[in-house]
Amino acid sequence: MKTLKQPKKGDYSNFFSTYLNKVSGEAYEKYILDQIDLLKELFNSKSDTWAETAYAEGKWTSKEVLGHILDTERIMAFRALCIARGEKSSLPGFDQDPYVLNARFGHVPVELLLKDFEIQRLSLISMLNILPPESLDMEGFANGNPITPRALLWIIPGHFEHHFNIFTEKY
Questions:
Q1: How far is C-alpha 78 from the geometric centre of its chain's CA atoms?
Q2: Structure pTM?
Q3: How far apart are CA 95 and CA 135, in angstroms?
Q4: Quick one: which of 8, 26, 108, 162 has the fewest CB in 10 Å?
Q5: Topology of domain 14-170, per CATH?
Q6: Is the pLDDT of residue 1 over 80?
Q7: Cβ atoms of 96 and 71 closer than 8 Å
């Protein structure tokens, strides 16, 4: 199993503390793989209509939350790759609401979203395996804030934990 030390303060903006405080240790690959199973078990344990339902008016459906997780992970992985490759330009931020609206996740079968999640996670592990270790601590900028690839990679399972908790508490 691939290990990855946690980022240190200063490797990311305070905004990401919410997500990074949800993960600990160095067992990165285990986090990534275990979360695939957790997500599949959750969705498979629910009725067909559960994925189509929001917990309150104006909130996303479970499928839309899953799609948001996928989009966010792709963006974080892209940022990590860019910075690890020496990108000096500040990478753009993104507004999650138009992304979810324009993605039309409600029209995508749950099975495809779950498969996409699994493939995305395996791609993360593959990317981590080929990144030079010293590149993980290169500093870059995203949305005008300093950040490292190490922090971006750890934000991914922390962001998942954040939304998984919402799934289990509110949906």
A1: 11
A2: 0.96
A3: 27
A4: 8
A5: Four Helix Bundle (Hemerythrin (Met), subunit A) (1.20.120)
A6: no
A7: yes
